[in-house]
């Protein structure tokens, strides 16, 4: 697959006139549902908004402009928000919003995206688990709810965080290094928190977090977890 052309077009898009966009609030974070990942963009003054990512060849834009209506988001609603639901398998993705005004285009990565690639695209980790309640503002110790075990870690400066434990062969690490994106947590959100939710059998499970594939840490929120040692969660 040739990924260079979409990135090159962003450089050309920089030459196009742009218009101001309001900040993207954290409540518009992408959310996983049974139907796919719901992307949302606040753009009350836009004519149209397109979702562009490496999952759709960056909306097949030409010179920063998108003409294919298949990539258009639905909206705006009464709050000025455009939305689009895209079925995505678990993995790591990059995306932006292409916003068309009355006589100008602009491309944005949402403010809540704390990590971006060299082209300014936002990163998104999809774990295949539907979101339920809105994310909490602070990380919590591993806990069970609705038949799943929920893991959280505050690590705003990490590029990737993996969940490794007795339940996934310690993320299939090789001499302490993890590279398999199946074990990547989702994040960071606007509060710097990474999350993963798993169905685990009853019993006591050991786990650690792996920052950027090589730095292993215990859960700082789990009671009695010494640094650099296993943390534990009990599934009743």
Secondary-structure blueprint:
Layout: H1 4-13, E1 31-33, E2 36-42, E3 48-53, E4 81-86, E5 91-100, E6 105-108, E7 122-126, E8 143-145, E9 148-154, E10 161-165, E11 193-198, E12 203-211, E13 215-217, E14 231-235
Antiparallel strand pairs: 1-2, 2-4, 3-5, 5-6, 5-7, 8-9, 9-11, 10-12, 12-13, 12-14
Question: Can you give a write-up of this model?
Answer:
This protein has 236 residues and is mainly β. 4% of the residues lie in helices and 33% in strands. It has 1 helix and 14 strands. The longest helix is centred in the N-terminal third of the chain and has 10 residues. The N terminus is likely disordered.
Strand % is 25-35%
C-alpha Rg (nearest Å): 19 Å
Discrete helix count: 1
Distance between the termini: 46 Å
The largest β sheet comes out as: 4 strands, antiparallel
Oligomerization? single chain
List how many beta strands DSSP finds: 14
Low-confidence segments, ≥5 residues, pLDDT <50?
1-17
The average pLDDT value, as a whole number, equals 87
Order of helices and strands: HEEEEEEEEEEEEEE
